[in-house]
Fold this protein.
Amino acid sequence: MLRITPAQYSNLQSLFFTASPGNTTFELTPNAQIWPRALNSFIGGTPSDVYLIVHDIGSPSGSGFDFINGYTFLERFYSVFDTGNSQVGLANTPFTSATSN
């Protein structure tokens, strides 16, 4: 994980993911892009540190698989996986736009 300064965190912008079909856009707020500060000691950090959990995974593939939505995305959105029909359903939760983690 990358450690950023509080000043860098204050400049962090939301990430937006658009899912097809339907072109539904999902927002991952700045707070949703960082490791929960209350858990910093579990990764050897200090309470005042800010750790990004979002990172570039390399060069663009050209196939649309250029990132992985994981832990914090799944915390912020209800997710239903229909493997039989190769579908995923997403919906907002009370934590989708939370300003604290």
